[in-house]
Design brief:
This protein is α+β, with helices and mostly antiparallel strands. The chain contains 1 helix and 3 strands, in the order βββα. A 3-stranded antiparallel β-sheet has the order 1-2-3, with no helix packed on it.
Amino acid sequence: MLVLSRKVGEEIVIGRKVIVRVARVFRNRVSLTIKAPTSVCVDRGEIRLAKNREHRIVNSCGSVQMQAGSGETRQS
C-alpha cells in the first residue's frame, strides 16, 4: 500500500486520466475531488462493499440481473 501526504489544493494522479485533489480538511474529515473518465467506476468503500454483497446475492439466485452503471451521482 502506498501512503501519500498532500496539502489542500495538491493532487494525486492515478494512471493518466484519474486526478484526486484535496479540496479541504476540517478536523478529522478530508474532502476530495475526483476527476475521472465516466468509464472508471468511483465508489466510496462502503458503497463498493454493498454492491459486492448485492452482486453475490443476485448471482446466487440466478433469476435477477444487475444493471451496469448503478452507483453514486457524479458531478463534473
